[in-house]
Input
Amino acid sequence: MRIEHSIALLDADAFFVACERVADPRLGGRPAVVVADAKRRSVVLAASYEARPFGVKTGMVLHEARRACPTLTVVESHPALYLHLSSEIEKILWDFTDRVEMSSVDEAYLDLTGVLSYFHADAVTIGRRIQARITQDLGLPVTLGIGPNKLIAKLLADLAKPEGVREVRAPDVAALFEQTPVEKLCGIGSRMQAALAPLGVKTAADLGRLPVEVLLDRFGVIGWTLKHMGQGIDHSPVRSIGGRPGPTRFPGRYVADETVIPDEVKSIGHAHTLQTDTADPGIVHSFLFLLSEKVAARLRRHDLAGRVIHVTIRTADFDTLGKQRKISIPTSNGPEIYGVARGILNELWRPNPPPPAIRLVGVSVSYLSPRNAQPPLLPAERRRSDLDDLVDRINSRHGRGAIRPAAQLPAEKFGILTPPIPPHQHDSR
Ligand SMILES: [Mg+2]
Output
């Protein structure tokens, strides 16, 4: 018998604003926004629920927000505070289950399936306890959506905001989907919505009824994913990257935590076999850089960012070595991926004794999430993201590689990079 899973998505309400209110309670109950820098043409990173009736929302330029709501309180962001409170939330969540997946700074998936009997409670009751703990201990309002999988949990969290706890069980998903506009499903953006409209898809249930052949024909391989989404099917597990900190509180409730294996999860990667085996670190690093840039550009083309970076090398005698590392904030930035990848390479390929010659280098990024799910938090991160967008725009106009980092030049000399490709020859991905 298949057991029904109880998956929750915890989402902090107006998280950045709520954090600022923890630091300064005078901000409570007022229309307020958080921006990175109040002096410039800054973008609203978060708006309090009191500001939203004025039409103030995330992504708006500050002066527009001020015009919409003249009494608006503007607060400059304190990323270190948000990261601290995020890790405090995570600590509390580990008291409730052995499966916690922080999917962003203020969102976490929880698998409650194994602890219902431990707590002698249903998922909603546990959800309310979690909510109460976070509110009492940290002063932060949160919402929990609960369902048989992550897709449903995410949808319900959106419907239950703010300060809600709402569950839909598997038998009631179909009725819910009849009422759910398709764009409410996580992963259906406005472009996908526009592409689905001519096929007669308005609700999530419409998507589920569409023959998969139609979806495969129109959207290629993701046709199956779309079909499953429309049927409320999502088999992706709650993954605790790096596993539980400390011993389990729930012995026997969950099998040993799986580690993330890149082949198993969705990942984006590039590998390259060198024309000649080499033990020259300069050349290997340059290839690693080039591959990191390519992976980053592909992530950005798919509007994705990832948190686990994996490096594979194959030596001249066909030993294949691989290792991965997790970073705290998802990235789609080449130099950042390279920075991590180079650290991993240095562990895999030690210079002492003299390292073996290498014939293949690979970099992949997994544990993917939508790239702009979270506006860039740190000023440096924002500048990098803007620069990446600019480089992508220039390269799409003048040919891929028209602008490229100097660090990849040794690899080009080694003969792997073709000259800039004119835009019309680009693959469409
Ligand atoms: Mg939130």
Remarks:
- Confidence is low (pLDDT under 50) at residues 256-265, 415-429.
